[in-house]
Amino acid sequence: xxxxxxxxxxxxxxxxxxxxxxxxxxxxxxxxxxxxxxxxxxxxxxxxxxxxxxxxxxxxxxxxxxxxxxxxxxxxxxxxxxxxxxxxxxxxxxxxxxxxxxxxxxxxxxxxxxxxxxxxxxxxxxxxxxxxxxxxxxxxxxxxxxxxxxxxxxxxxxxxxxxxxxxxxxxxxxxxxxxxxxxxxxxxxxxxxxxxxxxxxxxxxxxxxxxxxxxxxxxxxxxxxxxxxxxxxxxxxxxxxxxxxxxxxxxxxxxxxxxxxxxxxxxxx
Length: 269
What we know:
Elements: H1 4-7, H2 9-19, E1 24-30, H3 36-48, E2 53-57, H4 68-79, H5 86-97, E3 102-105, H6 108-114, H7 116-126, E4 130-132, H8 142-151, E5 154-156, E6 158-159, H9 165-174, E7 179-181, H10 191-207, E8 213-215, H11 222-228, E9 234-237, H12 239-261
Parallel strand pairs: 1-2, 1-9, 2-3, 3-4, 4-5, 6-7, 7-8, 8-9
Helix pairs in contact: 3-5, 3-12, 5-7, 7-8
């Protein structure tokens, strides 16, 4: 059996973008917003308008790491009747319609409640590519690491500027697909400060052997995408896409996705 690291669908998508002279565009949307059917169409729209990797978030009742725009969307989805099992319905249909790897970004408690092995099996059966787990560290995730090794699902852990070298080593060793690189774990500051922090963190991750590092720091336009891709393998966009869906529907989302994707071309040195 091929190991998850070499079989990574997400890693392959990032490599394919690189081979085409681009950095990767990773797009986040919450599942179930504004309703389940539209959220499926939104993910398909995102994939058809330039996203290399889809990152879908099941709404959670205590989204401690989400900004206001995303929190409002996820609360609306929960109020509309979203259930965790809807995650697999959405992933299954999206994976059937587009050839873009689908990662689920989820807080850990819902996975525990559902059952780690059951969650992994159901995600694999639906055609999902893996999990981004923002609130669990590798040393606290032996059950998930074992399940992902068994199923070949990617596991994406987060790294922050405050992470020690020892922790970065652990994160790199246990992540597949990419390392989710955040410039701050608190309130965002000036753009230049965020860029400097993210650039430094990516360099540190490279020193520890990270093959792919994608950055999510409130990126909202093509110039910011291009700036991040000067040093990272991928740019992760969430809030700007959720706002576009909220304000302009599927058409507005597609337009915003195309504009962001225009920033992925590698600049000549």
